[in-house]
Amino acid sequence: MPELTRRRFLIASIGTAGLLSGAAAIGWPELQRAAHDRPLADGTGILVLVTMYGGNDGLNTLIPYADNAYHDKRPELAYAPEEVLHLDDQLGLNPAMKGMATAWGDGTLAIVRGVSYPKPDHSHFRSMDIWQTASPAEPVSTGWIGRWLDATGDDPLRAVNIGGVLPPLAVGAKATAAALSPSGLAPAQFDATMAALGVDDPHDTPAMSMVRTAYRATQTADKTFGGFESGKAKNAAIRGNSLAEQLTVVAQCVKAVVPTRVYMVQLGGFDTHADERGTQQRQLQTLDEALTPFLADMAGDPHGKDVVVMAYSEFGRRVAANASQGTDHGTAGPVFVAGAPVKGGFYGDEPSLTYLDDGDLKTTSDFRDVYHTLLVHTVGADPEPSVGAGRTDLGFL
Fold first, then answer.
1. What separation in angstroms does the CA of 55 have from each of 48, 86, 198, 290, 327?
2. Which end of the chain has the lower number of beta carbons within 10 A, N or C?
3. Count of domains for the chain
4. pLDDT tens figures, 209-242
């Protein structure tokens, strides 16, 4: 294996946008002062983005249980009508999503159907890149939240990723979100690694210099949020659920009135090419058991009542089951938006299971319209720098 030099590592980080930190050079005392001096005003929207990595099967999440085509194309993989949590006389949720079904009944869950982008790509990497950069036509180096950061000032705490690897969506041309340190390294190892990578080098390009600054800021950013993480595993229901632990950190930040408008969390494991039912149902249960208490906690908090959660995946799956009782990479799928400010219900048309594009669902909702709606109504921002002009407000907020 070639030696991983500091320069090569910086170049790799620039190329993938997989930074090990954001640029939030602020410590816990400064964070406390920030929360005291400039707390979020009452009524200020807070956005929590949940990325479901792997390509979640939307048809076995939001299930068209009354559609004969669903059962015909998935004779063993389909859920029987009596297994489904009915939302109306056509559609229901996976049986693992009991909490989300309750939120639907409370009117605080919106489901945008058939969400994708023009000319869908079946690659995990390219499709996720498109979702996170909001640029279907051509690759770009900035994410949609990163461009929002670029356009809205220099407060380093406006966006926070809960996890050490900063996703492309949080990288701007001039600013990045803050990120927690990787848990895989011991603290001493991590500190030493970040210190080495943060050393000034006169040969750095401007882009490499920005990455180096991000690494150097990691140690301080980690201290900033470390105090919140300390209580994350006290609840037995949370331990072992990585998404619940991440959302506990978010909840503690929100309650402390930290001046953060966007939080990013993630859950993997949705690439279900074989034996899908058990695997996906466990992952959806993990999602449900993390989101349900978080949303209830936020609804009862004076600051949390303004929190909106969006959960999405890079693509859905193909309509027909494969020979391994799984599903292969597809296109459109549902996006879930939940929280007290949400106008619950269905948005966008339900894709046809018979009028297909070479075995894939046709897109009925553009993902940039979802982002547009969130940026306008939750973040309170001009959406054009992030998603371009001419987008549509979907009305779920």
1. 19, 23, 35, 19, 10
2. N
3. 1
4. 555 555 455 444 444 455 444 444 456 567 789 9
